[in-house]
From TrEMBL:
Name of protein: Sulfite oxidase-like oxidoreductase
Tree of life domain: Bacteria
One Pfam family of this chain: Oxidored_molyb
Domain Oxidoreductase molybdopterin-binding: 33-178
CDD domains: arch_bact_SO_family_Moco
InterPro entries, A to Z: OxRdtase_Mopterin-bd_dom (IPR000572), OxRdtase_Mopterin-bd_sf (IPR036374)
Organism: Nostoc paludosum FACHB-159
Gene3D superfamilies: Oxidoreductase, molybdopterin-binding domain (3.90.420.10)
SUPFAM superfamilies assigned: Oxidoreductase molybdopterin-binding domain
Length: 201
């Protein structure tokens, strides 16, 4: 299995691959549950909680500055893909559109299909985070989270929510789907924050 789908990082990539990871030869797809099918015409994105409620459509996002991003991608299931090329919108640019209460400390990411994952405001607001709608120059395939997903390169990929459709702003931490089921609250690859100590891992 290692030779067919994955390989050990070579010396030139060793410093870029977190401990316990192997390089994927393709771009694996891992999804829990059904894959939502959402067109850009019906796609909507909401913000609520400790923020002024607002709803955005696809055109609202496309009116924001668009950028090319190249980022490494690390999955908690022990594979990494280097130099993934995305097109998207900076989180910081989107955040300029909304009003957030100063008491916000955490965010719950919400997605079509019901998936959730939590992230701290500090981790979310990093300059390198973005909402992606293209990968390798093509529209983001539905199996990879199209029409839009969040990408948070410095955390394991389950924090880069596929099919994202909303942000709930919170005064304190609440756990999302995988975090409630044994995954680490934060998910830092270089620290191998894969699972929660509360579950005995």
């Amino acid at each position: 299995m290692l030779g067919k789908f994955f390989q050990k990082p070579g010396k030139e990539d060793d410093q870029r691959v977190p401990p316990g990871q192997h390089l994927a030869k393709g771009f694996p797809v891992l999804t829990y549950g059904a894959t939502p099918q959402v067109s850009i015409e019906e796609w909507q994105f909401r913000v609520w909680g400790l923020a002024k409620p607002a709803t955005f459509n696809w055109s609202d996002f496309m009116a924001l500055p668009q950028h090319e991003f190249t980022a490494d991608f690390h999955c908690v299931t022990r594979w990494s893909k280097l130099d993934v090329k995305w097109t998207g919108i900076k989180v910081t640019d989107f955040m300029g559109l909304i009003e957030v209460d100063p008491k916000v400390a955490h965010i719950m990411e919400h997605c079509y299909g019901g998936y959730t994952t939590n992230i701290s405001m500090e981790d979310f607001m990093r300059e390198e985070n973005f909402f992606a709608f293209k990968v390798f120059g093509e529209d983001l395939p539905v199996e990879h989270g199209g029409p839009m997903r969040l990408v948070v390169p410095h955390l394991y990929a389950w924090k880069s929510a596929k099919w994202i459709n909303g942000l709930e702003f919170l005064p304190s931490e609440e756990l999302g789907f995988w975090e409630r089921n044994g995954y680490h609250r934060r998910g830092e690859p270089w620290k191998e924050e894969r699972y929660s100590n509360a579950f005995g891992f």
